[in-house]
Automatic annotation (TrEMBL):
<protein>
    <recommendedName>
        <fullName>SsrA-binding protein</fullName>
    </recommendedName>
</protein>
<comment type="function">
    <text>Required for rescue of stalled ribosomes mediated by trans-translation. Binds to transfer-messenger RNA (tmRNA), required for stable association of tmRNA with ribosomes. tmRNA and SmpB together mimic tRNA shape, replacing the anticodon stem-loop with SmpB. tmRNA is encoded by the ssrA gene; the 2 termini fold to resemble tRNA(Ala) and it encodes a 'tag peptide', a short internal open reading frame. During trans-translation Ala-aminoacylated tmRNA acts like a tRNA, entering the A-site of stalled ribosomes, displacing the stalled mRNA.</text>
</comment>
<dbReference type="InterPro" id="IPR023620">
    <property type="entry name" value="SmpB"/>
</dbReference>
<dbReference type="InterPro" id="IPR020081">
    <property type="entry name" value="SsrA-bd_prot_CS"/>
</dbReference>
<keyword id="KW-0694">RNA-binding</keyword>
<dbReference type="Pfam" id="PF01668">
    <property type="entry name" value="SmpB"/>
</dbReference>
<comment type="similarity">
    <text>Belongs to the SmpB family.</text>
</comment>
<feature type="compositionally biased region" description="Basic and acidic residues">
    <location>
        <begin position="135"/>
        <end position="151"/>
    </location>
</feature>
<feature type="region of interest" description="Disordered">
    <location>
        <begin position="134"/>
        <end position="157"/>
    </location>
</feature>
<keyword id="KW-0963">Cytoplasm</keyword>
<dbReference type="InterPro" id="IPR000037">
    <property type="entry name" value="SsrA-bd_prot"/>
</dbReference>
Length: 157
């Protein structure tokens, strides 16, 4: 029996389709402002960030459309499931991301939600552009070829 990977254990949500749908040019780590019931629900690992994105609201950056399910034991003090959540970044980072969104047509996509060493919830953000259909096909071809190549090398033939 193998031991569980500690990095995998801390992962709360993963956006696996992001690298397929977007050409990610840069990644950065951001804090996220959450309520108490959201933290407890995130520790359960049922959150989804597949359709979420980060964007400006005023002069701040927020995470939109991230689904953190209700914490069942919280009864009437629960949180709204898809509320916009503030991202905690330095002003220089916010200005850089806002400029890339507005001027250059980039999108800020959350790649992972995880807990760091201190137990704080963090979001790994990726700055990227949407891929066209032919780019997605090319990504799929290289992934399939790498899989086949590894299989051939493993069998030795």
């Amino acid at each position: 029996m193998s031991k569980p990977d500690p990095e995998r254990y801390k992962l709360a949500a993963d956006n696996r389709k992001a690298r397929y749908s977007y050409a990610i040019t840069e990644t950065l780590e951001a804090g996220i402002a959450l309520q108490g019931t959201e933290i407890k629900s995130l520790r359960g690992g049922k959150a989804t960030i597949g359709e979420s994105y980060a964007g400006p609201m005023g002069n701040e950056l927020f995470l939109f459309n991230a689904h953190i399910p209700e914490y069942l034991e919280a009864n009437r003090f629960n949180h709204d499931v898809r509320r916009p959540r503030k991202l905690l970044l330095h002003r220089r980072q916010i200005n850089k991301l806002m400029g890339a969104i507005q001027r250059e047509g980039f999108t800020v996509i959350p790649l992972k939600v995880y807990f760091n060493d201190k137990g704080r919830a963090k979001v790994e953000l990726g700055l990227g552009k949407g891929k066209k259909l032919h780019d997605k096909r090319e990504t799929e071809k290289t992934r399939d070829w790498n899989r086949d190549k590894a299989r051939i090398l493993k069998t030795g033939g």
